[in-house]
Hints:
The structure is a homodimer. With about 450 residues, chain A is an alpha+beta fold. Chain A has 16 helices and 20 strands. Chain A has a seven-stranded antiparallel sheet, sandwiched between helices. In chain A, strands 7-8-12-10-11 form a five-stranded antiparallel sheet. The longest helix of chain A has 18 residues, at about 345-365. Chain A is globular. Chains A and B meet through helix 6, strand 11, strand 13, helix 9 and helix 11 of A and helix 6, strand 11, strand 13, helix 9 and helix 11 of B.
Amino acid sequence: MDMPVIKALTDALGADAVISREDLAQRAVGYWNPNPTTARALVRPKTTEQVSQVLTICQQHQQPVITQGGNTGCVQGSEANPEEIILSLERMKSIEDIDVTGGTATVQAGITLEEVHNRMAQAGLLFPLDLGARGTCTIGGNVATNAGGINVLRYGMMRNLVLGLEAVLSDGTIVSSMNHMLKNNAGFDLKQLMIGTEGTLGVVTRVVLKLFPQPLSCHTALVAMDSFDNVVSLLTTLQRDLAGTLSAYEVMWQNYFYAVTGEGGHRAPMDREYPYYVVLECEGADPQADGERFERVLEKAFEDSVIVDAVIPKSETERRAIWDIRENFEPLLETQPAYVYDVSLPIRNMHDYIEQVTAGVERRWPGGRCYVLGHIADGNLHLFVKPGEQGDFHYQSDEEVYEPLTQYAGSVSAEHGIGKEKKQWLQHSRTAVEIELMKSLKNL
Amino acid sequence: MDMPVIKALTDALGADAVISREDLAQRAVGYWNPNPTTARALVRPKTTEQVSQVLTICQQHQQPVITQGGNTGCVQGSEANPEEIILSLERMKSIEDIDVTGGTATVQAGITLEEVHNRMAQAGLLFPLDLGARGTCTIGGNVATNAGGINVLRYGMMRNLVLGLEAVLSDGTIVSSMNHMLKNNAGFDLKQLMIGTEGTLGVVTRVVLKLFPQPLSCHTALVAMDSFDNVVSLLTTLQRDLAGTLSAYEVMWQNYFYAVTGEGGHRAPMDREYPYYVVLECEGADPQADGERFERVLEKAFEDSVIVDAVIPKSETERRAIWDIRENFEPLLETQPAYVYDVSLPIRNMHDYIEQVTAGVERRWPGGRCYVLGHIADGNLHLFVKPGEQGDFHYQSDEEVYEPLTQYAGSVSAEHGIGKEKKQWLQHSRTAVEIELMKSLKNL
């Protein structure tokens, strides 16, 4: 016997829109959690109006709802409780309009990031947000979490790439701010309230994206360095000398690089014992001139002993293999527990901070290790803490990572969001006045 | 005999912080209005704590307050009523910190944009927001209005250039979000509520700005074109072929160019009868290679008949003279009335829109003229409507400019804000649901 809320949803949207509790057991919770999904049901609207209907019906039945995009988040933001209904955007994947002249695309929020990349490339355009989960994560999820990724230093985060959006509030009200202009200062910019608030203020249903010309050249290198000072110095040099074409500068600490390469992992294209490795990439419009400049700048860095080793891929396969070292860290996750972090702090404090966390982890667990990589130009580091022994050490690990962050005014979430996982740590990054304001906004 | 609120302010901040109604008559209302300032008083705090004191005291006395930065706004947002007290940030001009490594500067909100440009340039850094009012407008005003200007197509608007800020709410509460990181997703991004809300939600007191490397090369040209299609086509070509170094693309319609050049105006460096003119600029890191590429791209545009004439300045004086045509439109304001507009709409609709407005203006007033220029890459046009006869035609002029905008989902304010002037036109750009939400936020 169906519950009244399930019956109302089925009547409104049709039987194929509602997946029952039993059938949901076939679905994994998400990328990071292979357990079966447990929820009251999952409902799959096709249009904004249907999303509005779902939320109206659920509010009438006092039924809690959780929204799901691609389920690749790291902070349990889209994990359902057994008594929740999942609102999935998986049938809202269409591209409604591409304006080549204006450089905009209008899409439904359930489309994957990779699908947007591919469709825009066919039109000679670039949507520059990019991250490892591209094949699964959705545009709506990218908006809800204000996603970052590997091209932020050139193009900014998702917030900078969204011109307009439409969202549905918890009572079913549709708020449409489908602006197509780079500039619109007519009153408050309400879309800013939806971006990065992880669905707490509404469900994003349609988005106007900002596009760029597809670059005509791409040059990549993997370089090794002796000190963090040199890592910073090379970044400064490249930002100046590559004149805005630098699109990625991804740093790996020695023990991260070592752990994901070698037996059972990726092939290492150079020695595995250098203190720091960087994957860097620049995208321009003049393949030959850009390539010459790229090599000239790297040669100079070599002469100045800023870099001590470098590999330039000679094919797309070799390029992909270098990026895989950075993006595919599954070798690190083979032994558990492994706790994943996403923090931000000023570049000038990064070296000291990582020393402190590493010392703390090694002090607490004899076999403990802290593996580090990050988008340092964005002030953003990812840490993997592995205690090296069995047990639930999540809270202790959090303490080691978050406590030292306070003195640098760092943030417990750079790009992954807060979700359920980090709620108790929010006070480390935000003042009581700020948290009070967030609560008032949510109530409103 | 002083009013109690004036006495309380004088007691709290000192006599030199308070300027009386009588002395205020010496001050002009602002750049666009030479009349004397009329207000109950003007108070000039030096610190955030003093701003908080001012707002607390004024709230206790139920005294309305209006905040002033550089008074260069175009929408009467900072004009006081006779019974208001003006809160001026003019004594809050210090630069508290420059982090060269991290690319950030921490400043008080009353500093002028030009002072920030100059001080950053001394440190080899660039703060890229730029607009004609640079010598007078303040960083706080730039934040409050989410300022745009001439470099938006490369660097974005003020919203993209603010990493953190501190503001004081109307009850004196200090909200500090002095983030220094490019990424911080720990909870709602509250600073987004302050940016572009024109002081309606709080007074911005300190700001963390995002900086870029100072470019090493700068190439400028003034080009002429036969059709708007070619104006758009050249923009698309430059965005692709100059690989992210294009920093300005400023379009002038024929009658604007004609009106500000010639006798009594600027010297015209080319024929004054071309349908469109563009000032374009690219900034890079390699003076020689960038210069060669710049000339190559322009030559190709010439061969393809996309441009029909071009002037490349040979000195900084010549470069400044070209920019003056675009930035200094005082010849246009010599005869009044002249109504200034700032609208945004998709590029693909601009040509039709301007035809409509021009026809409407000429239909309504026999000697009526509409002069147009704009940042078209940002979807942003500025219009000057001159009825060509004496009288107050502001409302009629607004009708001619704003009514045709609705069909293109355009905005009545791209970068100037709403102020007092455009309040009644807000409904043309925003839905009733959106305006309701703005009111709720303000009350909160």
